[in-house]
Design a protein that fits this description.
By secondary structure, the protein is an alpha/beta fold. About 35% of the residues lie in helices and about 15% in strands. It has an 8-stranded mixed beta sheet with strand order 6-5-7-1-8-13-4-14, sandwiched between helices. It has a two-stranded antiparallel ribbon with strand order 2-3. Helix 2 packs across helix 8. The chain is globular.
Length: about 450
């Protein structure tokens, strides 16, 4: 917004005053998240992102090569699914029974080899552009850009929640108000409470007293502001206050409201309960929820980055894949049984894959970074399911059919959400920047 005074009368900036006045409640961060310019686009669509940070190997998940030489195919074998011609890893038996309800892309590729640059390329559409010092992106990621264009999906709910946020995420020149509401706590803990939303009953009188103080301040400040920009700022502050006052978001975060059998179906581990929480938030009106899937109980690995020098890829995959199978199948089933499959899209992916050819470190097998072929899974969104898009060669090294780039995939997601592909943003210098520099929606999905 333009013409907002950077300082208010006195010794404190307005930002400092707001932070101080609502200390302990996290309201300013939430208000900053919700603040947005006037929008003309409305959309009921939503996305759940299960982010496999580090990059899940396509050779151990959705694009197996049982006829390849041993140094490529690895230890696992494919199993048939309920869709003829689609095979996936033997350690994903639940997903094998649901193949008619998801689509696989097996021919995605890009050229950004590092985790930071690959994440930026995959989620912004601008290859490899990251700040050298803090790894913050120079272009906004899709989740922030969509929040900027679309705003709230439902009044009283945060538009974008990260559990926690995708690593190296950022809104770049759109501003931090389009970063996610971060939920870093473990939902399996008995004392789990979401940040900025949990407002105990004994705190409400103190909260209301502070809000009255802010109201008096704002009334005085508006008398000094002839431009009307303070009124606009007050609107977004009030949205944050409405979330804190409302029970809608707090109820969505309350997993105790779910039947025990449902919590068990998702798994009594952090990633399972976060996935269940994501479904609850989407049902309550959040537009985008991302879940980072770095580690599960009993695992040495802290990501999907399965270098031979780090850990034994097959030992760790045997622990990790059953959890992936459990949580993704639970989400897919709920998309259909709860009437979410038309307007909610589930995306399961990371920023890269790993080398088709196995590497060895003192007898320990692994795979190194590989971006020339990767697989991802989509479910719901009203899209045609039960299909595989693209194919790699006999050793899984490169696409041989329907090669796709991240920008094609991003164009598909933007189109699904209802974000016009000709959208332009102004960067810090005021220069207009396209939403995407190129890319077309994937015709098989739209």
């Amino acid at each position: 917004m333009n013409n907002i005074p950077s300082r208010c009368p006195g010794t404190q900036s307005r930002r400092t005053f707001l932070r101080t006045s609502l200390a302990g409640l996290g309201s300013f961060g939430l208000a900053d998240l919700l603040q947005a310019e006037e929008r003309t686009t409305a959309s009921p669509k939503s996305i759940i992102v299960l982010w496999l940070w580090g990059g899940a190997s396509h050779m151990e998940t959705f694009d197996m090569k049982p006829d390849a030489p041993a140094e490529y195919r690895g230890d696992f074998r494919p199993i048939r699914t309920n869709v003829p011609g689609i095979d996936i890893c033997e350690h994903l038996p639940r997903l094998a029974r649901l193949a008619d309800k998801y689509a696989l892309i097996r021919s995605l590729r890009h050229d950004s080899q590092g985790h930071v640059s690959a994440t930026h390329t995959f989620l912004s559409g601008y290859p490899g552009e990251v700040a050298e010092t803090n790894h913050k992106p120079n272009y906004p990621y899709i989740w922030s850009a969509a929040s900027r264009v679309l705003g709230e999906r439902a009044t009283g709910m945060p538009p974008y929640v990260g559990m926690p946020a995708i690593r190296y995420h950022g809104a770049a020149y759109l501003g931090r108000r389009y970063d996610p509401l971060m939920v870093s706590g473990d939902p399996t803990e008995s004392n789990f409470q979401p940040p900025s939303l949990s407002l105990a009953l004994d705190d409400r009188s103190r909260f209301m007293e502070r809000m009255r103080l802010l109201d008096r301040f704002d009334n005085q400040r508006r008398d000094l502001d002839a431009s009307g920009s303070m009124d606009a700022l007050g609107i977004f502050q009030q949205k944050a206050v409405n979330i804190l006052r409302s029970d809608a978001a707090r109820n969505a975060f309350d997993l105790a409201r779910e039947p025990e059998r449902i919590r068990d179906r998702y798994g009594r581990h952090a990633v399972g309960q976060r996935c269940l929480l994501a479904r609850r938030l989407i049902e309550a009106g959040t537009r985008i929820v991302s879940i980072d899937f770095p580690c599960v109980p009993g695992q040495k690995a802290f990501s999907w980055d399965d270098h031979a020098g780090a850990w034994h890829i097959f030992d760790q995959m045997k622990i990790r894949l059953p959890v992936l199978d459990q949580v993704v199948s639970a989400l897919i089933e709920d998309l259909h049984t709860r009437g979410l499959a038309r307007d909610t899209l589930l995306l399961v992916t990371g920023e890269m894959s790993h080398t088709p050819r196995l590497s060895d470190h003192q007898g320990q097998p692994g795979r190194e970074h590989w971006t020339q072929a990767m697989s991802l899974l989509l479910a719901g969104g009203g899209m045609p399911m039960g299909q595989v898009i693209g194919a790699t060669g006999s050793k899984g090294e490169e696409p041989k059919q329907r090669p796709l780039r991240p920008n094609d995939f991003l164009a598909t997601l933007y189109s699904f959400l209802g974000v016009p592909l000709d959208t332009m943003f102004a960067d810090h210098s005021g220069r207009p920047i396209p939403l995407l520099p190129d890319g077309l929606p994937i015709s098989e999905l739209v």
